[in-house]
Amino acid sequence: MTLNLTHSPLVLLKNVGKNYGKSPVLQGIDLQLDQGEVLGLFGHNGAGKTTMMKLILGVISPSHGDIEVMGVAPDSKEAWHMRAKIGFLPENVSFYEQLTGFEVITYLSKLKGFDKKHAIALLEQVGVAHAMKRQVKTYSKGMRQRLGLAQAFIGHPQLLLLDEPTVGLDPIATADFYKTVDQLKNQGTSVILCSHVLPGVEKHIDRAMIISSGKVIATGTLEVLRKSADLPVSIKAYGLNGALREDGHLLKYFNNTKSDDILLVPEQEKLATLRHLLNYPNLQNIEMNSANLEQLYQYFLSKEYQVNTNENTVIENLEGQS
Amino acid sequence: MNQIFTVASKEFYDGLRNRWLVSITVIFTVLSLGLTYFGSASAGELGITSLSTTIASLASLAVFLIPLIALLVSYDSFIGEQENGTLLLLLTYPLSKTQLLLGKFIGQGGIISVAILLGFGASACLLYVNMGSIEVLSTFGVFIGSAILLGLSFTAIAYIISLSVSEKSKAAGFALIVWFLFALVFDLALLALLVGIEDGISQQGLTQLMMLNPADIFRLVNLAGLDRGDVNGVLAIAINASLTQFQLFSLLLLWVLLPLTTAIIIFRRKSL
């Protein structure tokens, strides 16, 4: 006997679009986010990331398409109790300046049905417990951001939506933040992480979605995106003292605009190149890097820009002919 | 209900923390005690004045002060939170727009109400101790009750402003314009109508027009039962109309409920 265990995704978007007036802000968005999955949502300013988050939160309704969060439409009355299970950190939030950090988190905790003890535990978790009796107006930018994170973590949410969570955090606080995200993920929390600060994000996300002008231009795991982009692998060999520049087999892999000895090798030729390098007796070390998230992001955005430019040129030509 | 009271207690505490409650109470207390004790100084007398004169003076003061303070306390309630990003955040919580608005109304209305009760209550106590008449308490009861309704009415009007504008500075500007219209321009316009229209305006018509301004209803509630010597201008004519105090109180209450309902409708339709 086989058990047919089906589980519905935590967040499901089917052909979702949103218009403000007549201008479309989001078009044809499809997304499925499962329990314990971390999605990185990337895009330029005004790409539609925040609108997408608002749609998932149920603060605004889609112009077309269907959205389900935990099995219900987030803008419906049925979604009422689901909201206690969602944590959200908006970009550039400024909390009540007159209140202390403790008062802010206690107030917000009460709105989700939690008490003062829970508020204190959260303040300790994000590292602002020492300043919790101080008014928020005395907090630094980093402390305010930690306070924002504390409120997003209220009630051990099943879904976290974080808009620019590491802005204003120092490197140690950023590392602590990602550690917390990893812990939450292991506990089954799903996370949608929206960030402009790409370095350091890729280790903590399962999938990435890149959007531009309201449309998804790339989505998938980093492996899938790397395959799709087909960007070269960078290989740096140590101990060869410029000998590689005289190697006829490798000359084509040098980036002539740079003076350092870094080879940019197509993915399918990576192994052959490594074997070739191993034949050098003086070789001390090899450093190899696949395309990182930042490079992938730039690649997909520039590709989209080229497509749009070509389309515009064709339209202008057609208009010129008519 | 829990959500409403959580928001209300936070708003009330906010008012305590940023000194609104203390400041308003002190202003009301100083002015009301001053008017009660020095109200007849212009007539060359010093000491407690008559109940009628005290209420007439307090009503004339309150009709300007209470709307202004209520608008100042509440004009940025929503636009301020919207600019800070907390309004969007709160709407992702298990909290409806109506609950949030009612919570704010109870909290901020509570600040105005407590300040009125303490500030003008001080005058009531002073007069009661000196006169020992129970009439003092009943007259001040009506005065304080109507003053609270006047404050709540302008709190609700401030919410309409706060929910209808896109910037905090615009909300402040509109709040001042609203105060100016209700507290000053409206009565001048009525006077102009009285004097300017050839056949004059009927007493009934004048009273009906006054119902369009909660500040005038407040004046009517409090001045209707006073010695006619303490009342003059448009009010003296309108007071002769046959509206009972209960009807006037009901109209004042309507001036709380109508703007409040309008604010709820605007908030529900508002997209963030």
List descriptors.
heterodimer; A: 322 residues; alpha/beta; Rossmann fold; 3-stranded antiparallel β-sheet; disordered N terminus; B: 272 residues; mainly alpha
Give an overview in words.
Chain A is α/β, with parallel strands linked by helices and 322 residues long. Chain A has two domains: 11-226, Rossmann fold, CATH 3.40.50.300; 232-289, no CATH class. Chain A is 33% helix and 23% strand. Chain A contains eight helices and twelve strands. Chain A has helices at 49-57, 101-111, 116-126, 141-152, 171-186, 222-229, 270-278, 293-321, and strands spanning 11-20, 23-33, 38-43, 64-69, 86-89, 159-163, 190-194, 207-212, 215-220, 233-238, 262-265, 285-289. Chain A has a six-stranded mixed β-sheet, with helices on both faces. In chain A, strands 2-1-4 form a three-stranded antiparallel β-sheet, with helices on one face. A three-stranded antiparallel β-sheet of chain A has the order 11-10-12, with helices on one face. In chain A, helix 2 crosses helix 3 and helix 6 packs across helix 8 (293-321). Chain B has one domain. Helices cover 78% and strands 0% of the residues of chain B. Chain B is built from twelve helices and no strands. In chain B, helix 10 runs antiparallel to helix 12. Chain B is globular. The mean pLDDT of chain B is 87. The interface between A and B is medium-sized, with 28 and 22 residues.
Query: Taking Cα atoms only, what radius of gyration of chain B do you get, to the nearest Å?
Result: 20 Å
Largest sheet of chain A: 6 strands, mixed
Number of domains of chain A: 2
Looking at the structure, the CATH topology of the largest domain in chain A is Rossmann fold
Structural class of chain A comes to alpha/beta
Span of the ends, CA to CA of chain B: 24 Å
Beta-strand percent range of chain A: 15-25%
**What's the pLDDT, averaged over the residues of chain B?**
87
The low-confidence runs of chain B, each spanning 5 or more residues with pLDDT under 50, are none
Spans of at least 5 consecutive residues with low confidence of chain A: 1-5
| Count of strand segments of chain A | 12
Morphology call of chain B = globular
Rounded to the nearest angstrom, the radius of gyration of chain A is 24 Å
Mean pLDDT of chain A: 87
Largest sheet strand order of chain A: 5-6-7-3-8-9
What structural category do the secondary elements of chain B indicate? mainly alpha
Output the helix-strand order of chain B: HHHHHHHHHHHH
